[in-house]
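Memo to structure team: turn this sequence into structure tokens by end of day. - J.P.
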Amino acid sequence: MINQKVLLFAALLCFGTAAPTIVTAETIAVIGTGSVGSALGPRFAELGHTVVYGSRTPEREDVLALLAATSGDASVAMPPAAAQMADIVLLAIPWSVAEEVLVSLGDLSGKVIIDPINPRVVDEDGWRDYPSYISNAERLQALAPRSAVVKAFSTFSSSTMIDPGAVDHSVTIPLAGNDLAAKARVSDLCEALGFETIDFGPVRFAHIIEGLYLLRANARQNDFDFEWNYVISKTP
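Reply from structure team:
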């Protein structure tokens, strides 16, 4: 019987040692084909995941163009069908319809729901603010209690989602959610895309993470743009 270590050594000689870490391939439903869905869908596929886009107009020209730009066995379906096929569901939709869309997807028990949505209103003086002090992620978790909602991808631009190297420092994605295993899966996904992650605790802290978007959006009012980076140090 051939020693497994010999086989591993032979594989390294053939393929080299610089290959990226492989994340377990999963089916990811990307509900919504706007800037966030269009940025992350193709990148998920590049990692080896199967991407199913959820769109109410699957035959629309821009949706078909996005599908053509997505590698692997990508497909497009109506949102409920896309969600039912998936292990992970990314809700890349406007905050004002998030709860309505989530309910329309049907039973999501056992699935991981990634919430990159930032609820906001524009005050009379032009500044972005919370529309509610209950986070979007908490509302989604309440509507789908047998799923695992993880707040992620909500604090930076879609252009940086496409190319993390567009900025001259690492980009940190804060995570919040009640399910540790689900957060670990989302963290692996984020890190495979080239980002850092920090677990900020249960979903009730998603409210603070959504506030990071408000700070960034309001900074742009003063012509100052940035992407969040946390200098991570572990206490002894």
